[in-house]
Amino acid sequence: MAIVGLLYVGAVLFINGLLLVGAVDPRAAAPMNLFVGALQVVTPTYLIFTSGGDPAVILAASGLYLFGFTYLYVGIGLLAGLDTTGVGWFSLFVAITALGYSVANFQLLGDPAFGVIWLYWAFLWALFFVVLGLKRDSLTNYTGWVTIIQSWVTAAIPAMLLLTGLWRNPTAIAIGLAIGGAVVFGGLYLLDRRRARRAPAPTPAPSVPAATG
Question: What distances in angstroms separate CA 213 from CA 64, 206, 209, 210, one per listed residue?
Answer without folding.
Answer: 55, 22, 13, 10
